[in-house]
Design a protein that fits this description.
Layout lengths: L12 H21 L5 H20 L2 H19 L5 H37 L1
Helix pairs in contact: 1-2
């Protein structure tokens, strides 16, 4: 039996992630240290760096896995039977009623404890 672990993804994934981090750090530091430059130029630089970083992250195996997970999650969300308006209102009113009842109960217990402590302390 072999105990070797197979590496998932490309061998270049590590280098791609380093470039992604470097792009984001460069965008952050470039925006901070180029304060004298035009705001629109800085926005464009940060936007370009972020788009390049996102594209590079998408080309990694983890990026493809994230896109696949997003597609499956969206498909699953489409299959959910969401409650109707009447059911939503009923549930909301029940929750509000329970919250009101709980708050009154806690207020009563707190008042009893406060009254008891005041009676003991004087």
């Amino acid at each position: 039996m072999s105990t070797e672990l197979e590496a998932s993804g490309s061998k270049l994934d590590g280098a791609k992630w380093l470039i992604v981090v470097a792009l984001l750090v460069a965008a952050t530091l470039g925006n901070q240290y180029a304060a004298e430059a035009s705001v629109w130029l800085r926005i464009a630089g940060v936007a370009i760096a972020c788009v390049l970083a996102l594209f590079l992250a998408w080309t990694t195996s983890q990026g493809h896995s994230l896109v696949d997970l997003s597609k499956k999650s969206w498909a699953e969300a489409q299959r959910i039977v969401w409650p109707g308006k009447d059911e939503t209102w009923q549930t909301t009113l029940i929750v509000l009623g329970v919250v009101l009842l709980s708050s009154l109960l806690l207020w009563g217990i707190d008042s009893l404890f406060g009254w008891g402590i005041s009676a003991i302390i004087g």
